[in-house]
């Protein structure tokens, strides 16, 4: 999205590395567009800081406060020197009128966030730990349209990230992954997981999901 | 369905017979529809209950928007009832149309934002995160997390925001106290002087965010900190800084100080909770025990190093037994770094040693058992540590 210079003058803010942009549970009235730099989204869960996402140029965050004030659901921290456009809810209407492109972009973002959140919920609602882990891998495979799911695929994900998606303890996920590794369904590497046949996993999860409520 | 006729550029009108399917769940397509005449029913399955939900599209309303925009499979099946006419838009048509009509976008955003809120709520409940959390209390808890983790800059932000938004609530006095402590650099009174310069030992060899098993010092953060508060963040907290530099104001706050009034009563009930937590721990009810320790921590009953040391020791042991070595290690190092005057420093060394022992890191284990063994007074823990050293050597 191209915005002119005086836009930055008016709405631009900058943050230094490691600076908090907003904190989980703080009331939120602004949302942000990243113009430059990276922002990490973290949450303190069970007395540990977990990174949920790393956002970059062109991304939007804090969008839940567009329509009404709501406590932030996570903490946003600048990873490097970050340039942002910061919009208050009160000038949202003016902003939309003057920048319909931005309005369209927000629709795209919301659509995607809703889908992603639903997809994650589907994982969380599965009961068996093994299936949850499989479904995280399926979800990651779905996110990359270039993967050839007929063949072995490689997913750049760590056990800890899988745990975070699945809402499970790291150790439990490690156990499940080790098991899948042993029976040669996957190959575990430090920084990636190779899945021999993701369609196998899909069949298992789909069939379980079908029977879940019957 | 009859052949579409072109209308307003790329937009096409289509007619369907009763009972036709416009699209099926899981179809992928970039078409967006507007209902012009007749009836369309959207049928979807509720994720959490599996129940079927049917929804009527109103005349003039869009459908199929989200999946087309997000380029993901349809989440519902769209079927007609009676003769039905719809307008079919491609993404580009849709974009052109709504760019001219920002009100429509605003309406959609409202709908989407509500949907997202609902899903987030379901996600939280699936994760077992309570729904009735108090944002004020949680914000303070975040401050406490960063404070105890030694990340004072982040802690300061949380405390200041707490004071800015929730100045009249439960933890205001404590938040002010923390702000004072951080500002004055008195964050870990009586901390033992430890050698933290060891190389990181990472049994799993992973994790980019926090290195496993590392007793890394946060000294750098702490050192940076004083300067940082001064020059950044000024905007957020001009008020707060004024407040802080105002001695009279602080005097008032001292009346709220938790050091004295909460004193005995607080300690006693913390004791009871400790006893309960110990029993839970013995019965291997680790999550519950952990919760109880966290409750004491968050309740503000932890008024001195002694109690806080005990809380972190309890949490560390629970985490350790739960296989959460990293969290356990963090708890123990919090005791050593922050609550140096507490008698539980010795236990912390002992537990760290035990963790290294079970990770088969003999040298490290001996090193930490030695720290525990040589720390006065000589007691059961020292004896046990001595025994361990003998066994290992």
Outline the fold blueprint:
The complex is a heterodimer of chains A (214) and B (393).
Chain A: H1 5-11, E1 12-15, E2 20-22, E3 27-28, E4 30-36, E5 39-45, E6 48-55, E7 60-61, E8 70-71, E9 75-78, E10 82-88, H2 92-98, H3 100-125, H4 129-143, E11 153-155, H5 159-166, H6 170-182, E12 186-188, E13 193-195, H7 198-211
Antiparallel strand pairs in A: 1-10, 2-9, 3-8, 4-7, 4-10, 5-6, 5-9, 11-13, 12-13
Helix pairs in contact in A: 2-3, 3-4, 4-5, 4-7, 5-6
Chain B: E1 5-7, E2 11-16, E3 21-23, E4 32-45, E5 52-56, E6 62-63, H1 65-70, E7 77-89, H2 91-99, H3 102-126, H4 135-148, H5 152-165, H6 172-184, H7 219-231, H8 234-245, H9 247-254, H10 263-282, H11 286-299, H12 305-321, H13 325-338, H14 344-358, H15 362-374, H16 380-392
Helix pairs in contact in B: 4-5, 5-6, 10-11, 10-12, 11-12, 12-13, 12-14, 13-14, 14-15, 15-16
Structural commentary:
The complex is a heterodimer of chains A (214) and B (393). Chain A has 2 domains: 5-124, Jelly Rolls; 126-213, Orthogonal Bundle (Arc Repressor Mutant, subunit A), CATH 1.10.10.10. In chain A, the strands form 4 sheets. A 4-stranded antiparallel β-sheet of chain A has the order 1-10-4-7. Chain A has a 4-stranded antiparallel β-sheet with strand order 2-9-5-6, with no helix packed on it. Chain A has a 3-stranded antiparallel β-sheet with strand order 11-13-12. In chain A, helix 4 (129-143) packs across helix 5 (159-166). In chain A, strand 5 (39-45) and strand 6 (48-55) form a beta hairpin. Chain A has helices at 5-11, 92-98, 100-125, 129-143, 159-166, 170-182, 198-211; strands at residues 12-15, 20-22, 27-28, 30-36, 39-45, 48-55, 60-61, 70-71, 75-78, 82-88, 153-155, 186-188, 193-195. The N and C termini of chain A lie far apart (47 Å). Chain A contains 7 helices and 13 strands. Chain A is α+β, with helices and mostly antiparallel strands and 214 residues long. The model of chain A has no long low-confidence stretch (mean pLDDT 89). Chain B is of the alpha+beta class. Chain B has 16 helices and 7 strands. Chain B has helices spanning 65-70, 91-99, 102-126, 135-148, 152-165, 172-184, 219-231, 234-245, 247-254, 263-282, 286-299, 305-321, 325-338, 344-358, 362-374, 380-392; strands at residues 5-7, 11-16, 21-23, 32-45, 52-56, 62-63, 77-89. In chain B, a hairpin with a 6-residue loop joins strand 4 and strand 5. In chain B, helix 10 (263-282) packs parallel to helix 12 (305-321), helix 11 packs antiparallel against helix 12 (305-321) and helix 13 (325-338) runs antiparallel to helix 14. Residues 2-7 and 189-267 of chain B have low confidence and may be disordered. At the A-B interface, strand 6, strand 8, helix 2 and helix 3 of A face helix 1, helix 2, helix 3, helix 4 and helix 5 of B.
């Amino acid at each position: 999205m191209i915005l002119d210079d005086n836009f930055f003058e008016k709405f631009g803010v900058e943050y230094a590395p490691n600076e908090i942009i907003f904190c989980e549970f703080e009331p939120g009235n602004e949302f942000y567009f990243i113009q430059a730099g990276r922002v990490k989204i973290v949450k303190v869960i069970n007395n540990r800081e977990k990174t949920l996402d790393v956002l970059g140029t062109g991304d939007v965050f804090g969008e839940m406060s567009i329509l009404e004030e709501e406590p932030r659901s996570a903490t946003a921290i600048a990873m490097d020197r970050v340039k942002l456009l910061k919009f208050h809810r009160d000038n949202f209407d003016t902003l939309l009128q003057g920048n319909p492109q931005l309005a369209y972009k927000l629709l795209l973002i919301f659509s995607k966030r809703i889908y992603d959140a639903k997809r994650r919920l589907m994982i969380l609602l599965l009961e068996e730990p093994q299936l949850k882990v499989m479904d995280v891998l399926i979800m990651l495979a779905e996110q990359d349209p270039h993967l050839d799911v007929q063949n072995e695929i490689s997913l750049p994900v760590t056990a800890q990230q899988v745990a975070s998606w699945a809402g499970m303890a790291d150790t439990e996920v490690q156990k499940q992954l080790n098991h899948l590794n042993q029976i040669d369904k996957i190959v575990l590497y430090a920084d990636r997981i190779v899945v021999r046949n993701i369609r196998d996993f899909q069949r298992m999860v789909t069939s379980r999901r079908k029977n879940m409520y019957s | 369905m009859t052949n579409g006729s072109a209308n307003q550029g790329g937009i096409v009108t289509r007619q369907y017979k009763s009972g036709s399917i416009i699209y099926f769940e899981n179809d992928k397509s970039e078409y967006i529809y507007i209902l012009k005449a007749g009836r369309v029913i959207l049928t979807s399955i509720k994720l959490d209950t599996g129940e079927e939900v049917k929804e009527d599209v109103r005349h003039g309303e869009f459908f199929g928007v989200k999946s087309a925009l997000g380029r993901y499979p349809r989440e519902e099946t769209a079927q007609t009832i009676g003769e039905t006419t719809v307008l079919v838009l491609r993404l580009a048509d849709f974009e052109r149309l709504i760019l001219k009509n920002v009100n429509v976008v605003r309406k959609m955003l409202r709908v989407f934002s509500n949907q997202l809120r609902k899903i987030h709520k379901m996600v939280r409940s699936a994760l077992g995160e309570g729904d009735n959390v108090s944002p004020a209390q949680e914000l303070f808890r975040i401050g406490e997390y960063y404070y105890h983790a030694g990340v004072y800059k982040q802690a300061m932000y949380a405390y200041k925001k707490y004071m800015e938004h929730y100045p009249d609530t439960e933890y205001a006095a404590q938040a002010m106290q923390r702000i004072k402590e951080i500002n004055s650099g008195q964050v870990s009174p009586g901390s033992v002087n430890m050698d933290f310069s060891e190389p990181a030992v990472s049994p799993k060899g992973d994790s980019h965010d926090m290195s496993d098993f590392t007793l890394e010092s946060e000294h750098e953060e702490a050192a940076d900190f004083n300067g940082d508060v001064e020059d950044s963040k000024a905007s957020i907290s001009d008020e707060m800084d004024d407040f802080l530099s105002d001695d009279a104001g602080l005097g008032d706050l001292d009346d709220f100080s938790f050091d004295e009034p909460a004193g005995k009563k607080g300690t006693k009930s913390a004791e009871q909770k400790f006893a309960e937590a110990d029993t839970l721990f013995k019965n291997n009810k680790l999550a519950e025990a952990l919760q109880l320790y966290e409750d004491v921590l968050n309740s503000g009953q932890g008024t001195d190093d002694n109690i806080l040391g005990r809380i972190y020791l309890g949490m560390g042991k629970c985490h350790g037994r739960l296989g959460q070595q990293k969290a356990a290690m963090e708890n123990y190092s919090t005791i050593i770094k922050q609550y140096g005057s507490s008698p539980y420093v010795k236990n912390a060394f002992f537990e760290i040693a035990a963790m290294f022992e079970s990770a088969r890191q003999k040298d490290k284990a001996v090193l930490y058992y030695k720290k525990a063994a040589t720390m006065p007074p000589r007691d059961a823990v020292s004896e046990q540590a001595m025994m361990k050293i003998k066994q290992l050597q």
